[in-house]
Give the backbone structure.
Amino acid sequence: MTAPLADPLPHEELGASWRSGRPRPAGRHLDSAACSRQSHRALEAAAHHARHEAELGGYVAEAAADDLLQQGRSVLGGLVGMAAADVAFVESAQAALVALLTGWRLSPGSRVACLPGEYAPNVAQLRTYGLRPEPLPVDGIGRADVDAVARLLADDPPRFVHLTHIGSHRGLLQPAGEIAALCREAGVPLVLDAAQSLGHTDVDLGADVVYSTSRKWLAGPRGVGVLCVRPALAAQLTPVLPEPEGEPPMRAFESGEAHVAGRVGLVVAVGDHLAAGPDRVRARLAALGRATRELLDDVGGWKVVEPVDEPTATTTLRPPEGVDVVDARRRLLVDHGIVASAIGAERAPGELTGPVLRISPHLDASVEDLEALAAAL
Amino acid sequence: MTAPLADPLPHEELGASWRSGRPRPAGRHLDSAACSRQSHRALEAAAHHARHEAELGGYVAEAAADDLLQQGRSVLGGLVGMAAADVAFVESAQAALVALLTGWRLSPGSRVACLPGEYAPNVAQLRTYGLRPEPLPVDGIGRADVDAVARLLADDPPRFVHLTHIGSHRGLLQPAGEIAALCREAGVPLVLDAAQSLGHTDVDLGADVVYSTSRKWLAGPRGVGVLCVRPALAAQLTPVLPEPEGEPPMRAFESGEAHVAGRVGLVVAVGDHLAAGPDRVRARLAALGRATRELLDDVGGWKVVEPVDEPTATTTLRPPEGVDVVDARRRLLVDHGIVASAIGAERAPGELTGPVLRISPHLDASVEDLEALAAAL
């Protein structure tokens, strides 16, 4: 656990500015795959908008923030390779999936290919809409097998592919770009769940739908998500209530009774992300993932699940025989002030055979934080 | 327009404390049926929780707020005559209706009785779930005709009654208590949309489901709503994902990816409401409605729709011949700093024959505000 790291962490200046830009953590926060730490700027922007609502009236304040919100749609669209008109603010990633499925109105029984390790709430939503999830072919660790996916799309194409880009239960990066290309060739829509990848890795990969949440790697507020749909697919959606003439069709999927202050906060958080430089963010997050895996594998009998050089910041650890993960996570929090997540097998019952401990540092984490975790384990 | 009011406004001390407890309005806010003005305490509680999330981690902060949130469920349940276990926090009134209909899984084609003036997004949601809205019998102004409802329930009972307690397009209070009694007798569930009535009038009336929003008469944050379901009906609901054993069943309808800071703000706002005294709040709001109608009817040719003594704070005005309501609302805002709403006929196409101007003062409004509006009209 004290072996020197192969490489020092890149972009330490980014870590420092990320750290200085937000409230001082009460302990060591290694849990951005659950919920990240907002910046002072994002917190203040949301609080300021809420106060503005009380001064001006909620809808007058929203109209006053219209340009800012439209800039936000534009920048979020840019991150996923779409235009502002393709982006709808919703309440969460789950709300985005619900809005998509409600609007798409696919025939019950339609087949949807998704990873065997698909996030259980997503599978449950697909089933609630009468859809039939079927497994995408994967390798031994759960990564989509691109050649086998190509055969599936050629031989027996599903109605659409739903791909969770990075799992919530495993820090594996799926080959979304390759699958997007195959889907496009086969004429099968690709829906990308980017809840764990937007702000973490590149998601401008050609998917037809990208949906995500504010609170994880973009470090925006809770209670905000985005649904981005390319125009050709958006034209196939039927909103619950149509938008007035002249509005982009995706605007009909934006809830009106919304946490608008949170949307304002997200726009500021996306600005922080752009200012940090998405490439530099990705490089540092990947390096943090590698450092986590190098420092933690085999410590106290915990086993790292991901390949050491997987380009993500999320690491999961299988417990030593007889160790309860929920209890271990509680002890880390209470005895050591280290925030991490216990992931039960029910989160991805098609893949997990038991609970894992998830470590997900953001830019402000340091090697010292990871060493403290190793010592605590 | 300068005729003296029949009665002075009651509880002026309540108006004063409501006013001093929130940010100074930029103009005259007469738009609480759209979105009310939060108190300093509610704004600070939400902002404080969001900062706490950044310090502790989102889910650690949520766990720390657990007791407060449970108190909130308890108090909100109390306002609708239910228990804490029957209350789920959701994102909005619309999200509550969606959660209910998703969980209920009624057969397509099931008949739902609702007012001819039902809120259009509610009708659209019912239709999205394959349900068949049918009109509840009403009198000439759109108030449910209790005797005729009794006959409907006896002769040809619908699967459930969906009653919007106070309209968003008309400040009419529906006889929800009487209808709840009839529904109970007939064994027909009553779903009460209390978006415009919770915090405005008594909603502890025996409905099987009550759903509402935070941002209107309770003056909580945007992006928060509540769904309250009595146990007998809750037992018939199937959540998308079941809760772990031991949790109240309605907890499965609470979104996890939520604006928790807003829930905290709502709990504080409900505390403000209780501290003010629900009976006194209702008396003053009803008096504000009466004063609005007395002061505005016939002013500049605008005609009040509601009976003058309707016990609500919401008044709608039909425009004089040739006057555009959207433009009139804009001029009130821009030229006079008066915030009100233009309500298009599409909001309640089964009842409205044209747009109306909606005036909806909260406790802090004064006769002077209403006189200024009369002068501006």
Chain A is about 40% helix and 15% strand. The mean pLDDT of chain A is 96.
